[in-house]
Amino acid sequence: MVKRERKLGRGVAVVGVGMSKFGVLPGWGCREMYVEALKDLQKSVDKGFDLKDIEANYVGCCGAWNWETQAGIGKWCTDWAGLNPIPSTTIDNACASASVAVRNGILAIASGLYDVVLTGGVEKMTTLPTEGTTLVLATGADATWECYAGYTFPGLYATMATAHMNQYGTTPEDLMAVGIKNHHNGALNPRAQMPNTIKQIMEQRMAKAKEKGQKVPQWVTEMDFMHDDQYNPMVAWPLRLFDCCPITDGASVVLLVAEDIARNFTDKPLYIIGTGQASGPALHTRDTLTSIPASQIAAKQAYDMAHVTPKDIKIAEVHDCFTIAEIMAISDLGFFKPGKEAAKAAAEGKTALNGVKPINTSGGLKCKGHPVGASGAAMVGEVFHQMRGDAGPRQVKMDVNLAMTHNVGAHGTDVVVQIYERR
Amino acid sequence: MNEPFTADSFDKFCGEKKLMASRCKKCGALSLPPRPLCLKCHSTDIEWQPLKGKGKIVAFTVIGVGPSTMIKEGFDREHPYCSGIIEMEEGPRMATQIMGVDVKNPQNIKVGTPVTADFVERGSFSLVPEVANVRKSYLVFRAL
After folding, report:
1. How far is it, in rounded angstroms, from Cα B7 to Cα B101?
2. Residue A43, Cβ neighbours under 10 Å: how many?
3. A169–B contact, CB cutoff 8 A
4. Which whole-number Å values give the CA distances from A176 to A99, A138, A357, B9, in the listed order?
5. Could you tell me which residues are beta bridge partners of residue A418?
6. Which of B118, B111, B105, B100 is nearest to B60 (CA)?
7. What is the pTM of this model?
8. B68 chain-A contacts, CB cut-off 8 A
């Protein structure tokens, strides 16, 4: 194979982002949530724009067939957004669907074909009973050969966690510290599905127990709550409820334009200077269970294209569908050494809002919510606000000129890594 | 053995209590689950190869909230089950249910525990009841 430098055919910029509410949204279907996200995006484009300028739409979604009994949902999002007859492409790469949609939009503009492209994703997840949703989520993995083992989606990440514990001595408390940190960030994000610190959740639970005349739990620290089998039950050893992201309805969109017209939309565009994507097999076909090889490969592609190193990245939104996923991500992306350093990063405050490398300033998937096919676009939304300095109470106290998004499909079968620059 | 290198063929062998992998005739690489194309050398000259069914636990979890297939078999929070990755003596790995381990105390389950193959019957993985009710033989492993 010919080795050559990979670069985009021309520059591409993010000029607007939007999201619908994230949460349990009875009565709201994919297409309607998509329009909500688009309305929100319109408000984010500083100089405004006309929907008629959009030339193509890429929509990520992984489960509408199961959760909404609808194939090709992107088409109906395009229709409801009033965008017919532009080309509409529905993309399913499990939980990385929206990032793959964004990346396809980038490639379409870089090719010279289009100048203005809408990208994003949507997921409606709360229509089925728990056992149905458990089954649908598990199909993000290999339905033939992993679900064979009785695997659930948390179970697959839990398996990587036991491998990590066995190899590096990682503890359940290391995992809990990631959740506590992301809840701290999420509490500062009014658009998070779970906008509460663990401490606030403890106070709510205590008040509720008192109100019902039940035994009031006597927790002192957040770790006490995290160890409580009743309030934080085991889902798949060693992952408890608060190691897992919630089930979420929601949509999120990103407006991409060619670099040479970006300033027609805003004076503060973000330029995409690195993009990478890689695929990986089922857990049993991998050489390692303590990292996600596709993350490392996608990250290297993005770093090489951007000519920057992990040290240069100021903040990152990484894939934390489960706490162990964030620990693996921050080492796979080169921010921390694999093993103990990555496992202890949250507990030691290194990844906190005021840490050396703030990770998941939005609260991550854990608190912001994880509408699986939409999450990648919402990650872009968070770095957009942080890089422009308008992230409100969770704004990091540093000049964020370079940021990264890292979105994993399933348990590492699809990974997209992107690097954004504010010039 | 002229069976195609498919999941269906693997299931049928399981029904005969045989653990069958595929083997590349060109480079000798074994694959479990069986595949029609060698991941090592991309050859499609493949044959069936019986495995001894001996292995060890590489990683695992204990699941209390399972998919409908497992709920139907009686598994729930009070009756959790262990799933994991098994490495065969011959090299390949596979994801299966692991029986005979202390699911009530998962912290006591050890990576490296030797296991041996066994076969159980249960329903299929599907949201569609008619499909989910089709029973077939599954490979599982039991701790020794």
Report:
1. 27
2. 10
3. no
4. 27, 23, 19, 43
5. A275, A405
6. B111
7. 0.97
8. 131-132, 134-135
Contacts of A208 (CB under 8 A, 6+ apart): none
Instruction: Report in angstroms the alpha-carbon separations of A126 from A6, A27, A62, A131, A409.
Output: 41, 10, 14, 12, 20
Taking an 8 Å cut-off on Cβ atoms, the answer to whether B63 and A144 are in contact is no
Q: What residue of A is the nearest CA neighbor of B132?
A: A135
Decide if B23 contacts B43 (C-beta within 8 A): no
ipTM of the modeled complex: 0.97
CA distance B1 to chain A (A): 22
The minimum CA-CA distance between B60 and chain A, rounded to whole Å, is: 5
Residue count of chain A, please give it. Answer: 423
pLDDT in tens, chain A (423 residues): 667 889 999 999 999 999 999 999 999 999 999 999 999 999 999 999 999 999 999 999 999 999 999 999 999 999 999 999 999 999 999 999 999 999 999 999 999 999 999 999 999 999 998 888 988 999 999 999 999 999 999 999 999 999 999 999 999 999 999 999 999 999 999 999 999 999 999 999 999 999 999 999 999 999 999 999 999 999 999 999 999 999 999 999 999 999 999 999 999 999 999 999 999 999 999 999 999 999 999 999 999 999 999 999 999 999 999 999 999 999 999 999 999 999 999 999 999 999 999 999 999 999 999 999 999 999 999 999 999 999 999 999 999 999 999 999 999 999 999 999 999
For residue B114, the SS3 value is strand
Total length of chain B:
144
Cα Rg of chain A, angstroms: 20
Nearest to B127 among A132, A149, A162 (CB): A132
| Helix (H/G/I), strand (E/B), else coil: A117 | strand
CB-facing half-sphere around the CA of B133: CA atoms within 13 A: 3
State how far residue A243 is from chain B, nearest Cα, in angstroms. Answer: 14
Contact residues on chain B for A151, CB-CB shorter than 8 A = 63, 83, 95
The answer to whether B125 contacts chain A (CB < 8 Å) is yes
* Residues of B (43-102) whose Cβ lies below 8 Å from A: 58-71, 75, 77, 81, 83-85, 92-97
C-alpha A300, offset from chain centre: 19
User: How many angstroms away from the CA of B92 is the closest CA of chain A?
Assistant: 8
Nearest CB to A147 within list B93, B111, B125: B125
Partners of A66 on chain B (C-beta within 8 Å) are 127
